[in-house]
Design brief:
Blueprint (H helix, E strand, L loop, with lengths): L17 H6 L9 E8 L5 E6 L3 H10 L11 E9 L2 H12 L1 H21 L5
Antiparallel strand pairs: 1-2, 1-3
Helix pairs in contact: 3-4
């Protein structure tokens, strides 16, 4: 796949939506924030978080023991993540995932899919 340069195009007389720009193959430079779910290989619990960094980088921080709350449950595996345009959206979605209905949604639609893939390749739940 050819990576096109980041361009913020404005056509005289129109203001294309972000979706239209993406469909044309141009990437718009925007900050990305993430909500993510980690799973402990040791204690089999889930951790819900949000970050302005790459989820892979954040997972490495959790696995290195920097975070006191996740240190006893290392190693962690990144199960799911989603990008948002603003930090508030990522944080709000993390808080939703921590709620009762959010956990039910996560187990049914996000985590269950990842665990099935894990089991299908021969790993224990």
């Amino acid at each position: 796949m050819v990576e096109r340069p980041t361009v913020n195009r404005q056509v005289v007389g129109s203001n294309p939506t972000r979706g239209a720009i993406f469909r044309q193959g141009y990437r718009v430079a925007m900050p990305e924030f993430y909500a993510y779910i980690l799973r402990s290989s040791k204690s089999k619990i889930f951790y819900y978080g949000h970050t302005g960094k790459s989820p892979e980088v954040r997972m490495k921080e959790h696995n290195s023991g920097i975070m006191k709350s996740t240190k006893p449950h290392r190693p962690w595996k990144l199960v799911w993540y989603c990008a948002f345009e603003t930090l508030k959206q990522a944080k709000d979605f993390e808080l939703y995932l921590k709620s009762g209905s959010g956990k039910a949604f996560a187990y049914k639609r996000l985590v269950n899919v990842a665990l099935k893939k894990d089991v299908s390749v021969g790993r224990k739940k």
